[in-house]
Amino acid sequence: MRRNLLLSMTALATAASFPVAAQAPQEPAYQGKIGRTLAESKEWWPAPVQAPKNAPNIVWILLDDVGFGAASAFGGGIDTPVLEALADQGLRYTNFHTTAICAPTRAALLTGRDSASVHVSGFSHTVLSAGFPGWDGRLPSEDGTIAEVLRDNGYNTFAVGKYGVTPDEDATDAGPFDRWPTGKGFDHFFGFLGSQTDQYKPDLVEDQAHVKPDGRHLSEQITDKAITYIDRQKKAAPTKPFFLYYAPGATHAPHQVAAEWSDKYKGRFDAGWDVYRQQVFDRQKSEGIIPATAILPDRDASVPAWAKLSPEQRKLYARFMEVYAGYLTYTDHEIGRIVQHLKDIKQYDNTLFVVIVGDNGASKEGTPEGDVDRSIMSKPLSDAETLKYNLGKLDQIGTAAATEGNYPLGWAQAANTPFRHWKSDANAEGGTRNPLILSWANGIKGDGSVRSQYGHVIDILPTTLELTGIKAPEAIRGIAQQPIEGTSLAYSITDAAAASRHREQYYYIFGSRAIYRDGWKASLPYPNGLITGSPGSKVAFDENAWQLYDLNTDYTERVDLAKKYPEKVAELRALFEEQAKKHNLYPLITWDDVAKGRIHNNGDGRTLADKIKAMHPAEQ
């Protein structure tokens, strides 16, 4: 008995240390008969795991920091012909939401559960995680990922690009590897584990070890690797379906892309962000992307009118946007390589594409003047000094030398047309609303039409399972699973007029918050921000300054109804508190708590500055 106990303990320790063992599915109980002799016995083998008959390949594509009004597939001013083609074949979802920043979106997407429920209310980074169940940045085993579910149902599983939910302290070649992609259901991974990396000198990982990048753009490398994974699998098992999670670093900073792409946009943005917003808004209306009754909000008070900028500012800012646009179009091109390859090997028609055009709204991290490189971060500069510095490096924008390249705040608002505010603003649609495309030649008879049902990133996992005929498991590797919290969107595919089934949803990012129910939305902005260039950072926070919007009649959140309907505000605030408690969101940690060192990851007592200095340069 003692020996069996020791063996069991050894097995558990081994499974916890080696992800290959952790990925092995639980063996079923033996169902044969064991007699004293072979004649008295009956042999038995477990049936091999097979995907449902005619199950499609699955490709999830998650872009980064794009904004609702950027891609031409949704009326934006940046060419994305591949996304347009996928959308034209399938369906465009225009009322789909993310969490407002990258790590919570990715955690929710991969698990089908709210980010706080799976411990990623903030980040998995040492500097931005905290020792509480909703905040420690560690995906629990009882909240299995889509890769684990599909792998156990006969799929090969691959991930390339940005992962973003591996704790910093685990992200070395010493592991442990159970929270690396290969420990969360992916047969292979090629990309980076953090939130941001240099596109030419990435902090690159393959499977369970760091590898040396080859100098090419990261998007080209991950596309090549994805094609290799697909071809290798199809050669060995032609009828076995695969799942590819394609998550490029694009278009997160640093905005880096070859001049052949950015130069395509020379002069295209000289008219400025005010003209861009109006043109995109008009196009979105004409294409039916937004309602005819929608009204474009005023330019944010923190963004100057383009007409009032100096010639030097206009020249600089237009170049920032040319680079960003080239970066997005190049990313679309790389997605096109995957699409074309699947056509070449006769796999395209039976591939389900799920494309989320951004893990949050467009980024406000570029400061009012834009951002070129990291050297400027060592000594804070005034806006005038930053402008002078950036003008001196105009030719470096978009190149490998632009190690932090990001456009100024005005272009972030333009890229979020028609909505207000930016990435990390969980209170505003500009932070949380992103386009979604569902496309499957054999399974979705779409024509590019719009679906306006309310959706959230947690809905993608159950949608995928329903479309493939796979049930969410009760257990994975013997570990009982928590219920899926998302709602499948499959009901809306054949019924554009169907009522939304996802009826309520909370949002929270380091102080900013919102609660949605049946078209009503109560929200509370948080004025302070760790994000450089956050507007209103000197305004005092008032926890009672909730706003109220009726999204059924006020598509772009222009009219605050809080004073008119205080009882509705009270109702929704109570619902937010209920959801916060239900999903492990407490305590409500804010940007100020982070910046002032009130949280101490792993109890080490270090300040935020100390933690940042200790991080790998590619992750700072």
Examine the secondary-structure arrangement and name the CATH architecture: 3-Layer(aba) Sandwich
Fill in the CATH topology.
Alkaline Phosphatase, subunit A
- Biggest beta-sheet profile: 10 strands, mixed
Based on CA atoms alone, the radius of gyration comes out at 24 Å
Low-pLDDT residue intervals, each spanning 5 or more residues: 1-22, 530-537, 615-620
The coarse overall form would be globular
Average pLDDT value?
A: 91
Into which percentage range does the β-strand content fall?
5-15%
- Give the beta-strand count: 18
CATH superfamily: Alkaline Phosphatase, subunit A
Which strand order does the major sheet show?
A: 7-6-5-4-8-1-9-10-2-11
The number of domains: 1
Under CATH at level 1, the class stands as Alpha Beta
Structural class: alpha/beta
User: Cα distance, first to last residue?
Assistant: 51 Å
Helix content: 25-40%
- Counting H and I runs of at least 4 residues, what is the number of helices? 16
Topology:
Layout: H1 2-17, H2 19-23, E1 57-62, H3 81-89, E2 91-93, E3 96-97, H4 102-111, H5 146-151, E4 156-162, E5 188-192, E6 205-206, E7 209-210, H6 218-236, E8 242-247, H7 259-262, H8 273-286, H9 311-344, E9 351-356, H10 383-392, H11 409-415, H12 429-432, E10 436-439, E11 450-451, E12 455-456, H13 460-468, E13 475-476, E14 479-480, E15 504-509, E16 512-517, E17 520-524, E18 547-550, H14 566-582, H15 591-595, H16 608-614
Helix pairs in contact: 6-9, 8-11
Care to describe what's here?
This protein is α/β, with parallel strands linked by helices and 620 residues long. The protein has one domain: 3-Layer(aba) Sandwich (Alkaline Phosphatase, subunit A), CATH 3.40.720. Helix content is 28%, strand content 12%. The strands form four sheets. Strands 7-6-5-4-8-1-9-10-2-11 form a ten-stranded mixed sheet. A four-stranded antiparallel sheet has the order 15-16-17-18, with helices on one face. A two-stranded parallel ribbon has the order 3-12. A hairpin with a 2-residue loop joins β13 (475-476) and β14. α6 (218-236) packs parallel to α9 and α8 (273-286) packs parallel to α11 (409-415). Residues 1-22, 530-537 and 615-620 have low confidence and may be disordered.
